[in-house]
Amino acid sequence: MLVSYIGQDCREIPEHLGRDCGHFAKRLDLSFNLLRSLEGLSAFGSLEELILDNNLLGNDLVLPGLPRLHTLTLNKNQITDLECLLDHLAKVTPALEYLSLLGNVACPNELVSLEKDEEDYKRYRCFVLHKLPNLKFLDARKVTRQEREEALVRGSFMKVVKPKASSDRVTASPEHHYTPLPSASRDLTNHRACDEHAKWEHIIRFPASAPYRLSSFHCEEAKFRS
């Protein structure tokens, strides 16, 4: 079951969302909000996929223990301390296989700074894989065997230095909305992420133009091919 709460301008996860949907939600999309905290996420203990793109999450981000979570996207937030984030994810998301951090200062590439280049990004990938060796996808790329081998040998030396405070904040840019999955996978009517075993999904959408009411749910079924 996918629960979608996109573009509601919420600053925190609504209590009613966890109360009404937390016990059955497998996938939760909270993108395009104003979240600075993930308090309340503990109600979603069975999550397998969590989308947090285009929020205001920073280095104080705290996730509850999510033992089943395999996909996490944090694109276009305000994260600058890569090592702190990775150490936290290693503790609370042991099953994580897909991670995307595009659009954060912690992910050094030309999308966030013209001073960064492909070599900076390669070093970043090497360090992430050193910290999270079970990843299969990082950002928009599949992890290769060569990258895994390099991370084992050199990963600990590839720490990305945190930028100065003046660069900590990422200015919101309306023309750049990062989405971690291929367009076909991110379509809410064809949403399968990395779960190759999914056959059917039930999607609950919360309309951006209407306040939350149980009667305003739009439920639909999307069939996936194996």
Poorly predicted sequence stretches spanning 5 or more consecutive residues: 166-176, 181-202, 209-226
Order of helices and strands: EHEEEHEHEEHHEE
Total number of helical segments?
5
Helix vs. strand class:
alpha/beta
Shape: globular
Strand order, main sheet: write it out. 7-6-5-4-3-2-1-8-9
Q: What is the overall pLDDT average? A: 78
Percent of residues in helices: 10-25%
Largest sheet: 9 strands, mixed
Q: How many angstroms does the end-to-end distance come to?
A: 17 Å
* Percentage of β-strand residues: 5-15%
C-alpha Rg (nearest Å): 17 Å
User: How many β strands by DSSP?
Assistant: 9
Folded structure, characterized:
There is one protein chain. With 226 residues, the protein is an alpha/beta fold. 20% of the residues lie in helices and 14% in strands. The protein contains five helices and nine strands. It has a nine-stranded mixed beta sheet with strand order 7-6-5-4-3-2-1-8-9, with no helix packed on it. Helix 2 (82-92) links the parallel strand 4 and strand 5. Helix 3 (118-131) crosses helix 4. The two termini are 17 Å apart.
